Structure formats: C-alpha cells, structure tokens
C-alpha cells in the first residue's frame, strides 16, 4: 500500500510540475536592460518606500497621540489608514526579496561554478524570508500597527537595517553595471 | 476491436511524427527524440504482425520492446540537457547533480534490497517490478529537470516544451496505472488495456503538434557581465539574506509577544 501511494504521489508530482512548466514562465533577469531594471527597482525602494524617514513616519506614535485628542472617528480612520500603509510597506519588502531572488537566479544559472549545496540553502532561506514577511503581514493585519508597540519598534529598526542591506545589494549590482559600462565604452554597439 | 484501433492510430501518429521530422528538418535537431519515436514505430508495427502470427510469443517480445523503449525514452532527457540546459551551465550542473544524486540513492536502495531480500527479485513479477521502477527513475529525473527549469526561469521553445510535456504525461500516467494494476491485480486489466494506450495516444497527439515544424527556442543573453566568481556572488546574496532574515525574525518574534 505504501509503495502504491509513493508511486501515485510521484506521478501526481510530475503532473503538477508539468502544469507549472506549461504556464508562461516569468523569465529571470539576464539582459543588460533587466540588470538595470533590477538596480532601479532596488534604488526606488531604498530612496523611496524603504527609507528610514518614511518607515519612521508610517509607524510614528506621535501622529497617533496627535489625532487621539480629536474625535474618535478621525482616530479610527487614521489607524485604519496607517495599517494599510504598513501592509503596503511589508508587501514592498516582500517584493524586494523576490527581486533579489529573481536577480540571483538569473545570474546563478550562468555560473559553471555553481554549488548545489549553496543553492539549496539559498532557496530555503529565500523561502523562509518570504514566509516571515507573510507572518509579519498577518501580524500587522490582525493586530494593527499600534496594537503591538513592540512590533512597530522592531519593524522600524528592521526597515533601517533593510536599507543598509539594500545598499550592499546596490553595490553588488553596481559592480555588474560598471563592467557593463566599461564594455559599452570598449564596444559602442552594446546597450 | 477498440484496442486494435487505438494501436493503429498510435502507429499512424508515430509515422506522422517521423514524416514531419524529415520534412520539417527537426529530425537533425533532435536525433535522440526521433530515435525513440522510430523505435516505437518499428516495435508497434512488428508486434502487431507477431500478435497475428504467433500470439504465444507476443508477451515476451512485447516486454522486451517495452524495456527497450523505456531506455530509449531517456533520449528525451538528453535532448532537454542538450538544448535547454547547456546554455545555462549553472542550471545544467544543478539538474545533473540532483538527478545523479537521486539515481545514486535509488541504486543504493536496490543494491541493499538485493542483499537483504534476494527472493524479492526472483519472483515472477520481477519484470513488472523492473519496468515500473525504471519508469519511476525516469519520472524522478524528469521531475528534477522540470523543477530546475522552472526555478531558474528558463524559457522553453515550443518543440522542447511539447517533448517534455508529452513524455512526462506518458510516463506519469503509465507509472500510476502500473502501480494500481500491481496493487489491484487482474481486476484492473479491463481498465488498463484502454487507459495505458489512451494516455500514450494523448502524448503522441501533443508531440505531433509540438514537432510539426522546427521552432527555435529563445536564446539567453550571454553578453551580461556578471560577478566572475560564483563564490563571491553567492556570498553577497547570502549576506543580504542573512541580514534581512535576522531583522525580520526578531521583529516577528518580538511582535508576537503580548
């Protein structure tokens, strides 16, 4: 019986994999334009949505204290709006992780020196990060931004660190772009 | 009568795929795939004659032909490696290593089983066991390749997508039907005689459409200059992920506290 279940599971797994293979693939970045786009996306996140000022503003307690003096309707509206903003922020964070994964896979597939163990570990870590983002999103969704002051504090600090991390990734992308620029100077036909 | 009809429709599709391969110049591009189809075509035609002339020797030859075709089916995996994964050395290495690891595990398992319980391999069902297990190995290998293709975002051309999907459906359905037949016994034969050939016909239909003419696959852009060393490249990704993970984990953990 166990054998039967194993073989049936294998067949079913193959069918599911084939179903995903038939769906149009989201191609990982590989061309120079896509490389630039990946850098641009990270740049926008770093200077815009993920800048420490913006994140601090989203979670700022002072704003809540300020509106708390007014009517309850305004306070409730404010809390709801802030929660929407915080959820958007987590969604953008998740997008950044997805961008990073997309860029990593798009580049790693060309490396002959790829290490299977490293790739498996990275795949697991990416999954864990995405899962954590989901948990954070749920926590903000159900508990709200101000219901859990600890999460706000940590989220703010995390956002600051993420910005620093983004800088590292930008530097990493910059190295690729620098060599691309050098090649363009040597060969003007390159993009 | 219906099974004979399915048989002839299958031979017709196999001939059609071979003719289109010759006319559409896809035969030279995918020789291993066409070798597999040619083997199916010859064995199906010859087995039909044998079925009419000497029905008693048919089962033995049918099994031999089945085994040969399962082995030649590996040609589709070879074509996938040659055409899809070769331009991506990293993904190719990953798929090859994953496939070989799985193969080594299965081989070790069978060797140990042979040493521990040799009687199991002397049963009259040995042939069925072998055929099913070979299919399972191919299914696992194909599953690894498909997962790698999808994970690394590699785009496939119409020819290769059809080749992989058709073969995957064929071995997946056969493997599942084989296992149920093995478990349920002769009572499943009534369904088996239609299910297996029909799933095979469906695969032939997919191959006919996909291999009608040569569709060049999308080429990767090799001009992108990337980090020269995989180590430094992977380390950069790992460093970024490690930092992100620790911040996220701590914030979630603290936030979850009352």
Write the layout of secondary structure elements.
The complex is a heterodimer of chains A (191) and B (258).
Chain A: H1 2-22, H2 32-49, H3 52-58, H4 61-68, H5 72-108, H6 116-143, H7 149-186
Chain B: H1 2-23, H2 31-53, H3 58-72, H4 74-85, H5 89-116, H6 126-151, H7 158-184, H8 189-210, H9 230-256
General description of the model:
The complex is a heterodimer of chains A (191) and B (258). Chain A is mainly alpha-helical and 191 residues long. Helix content of chain A is 82%, strand content 0%. Chain A contains seven helices and no strands. Chain B has 258 residues and is mainly alpha-helical. Chain B folds into two domains: 2-224, Rhopdopsin 7-helix transmembrane proteins (Up-down Bundle); 227-258. Chain B is built from nine helices and no strands. The radius of gyration of chain B is 23 Å and the shape is globular.
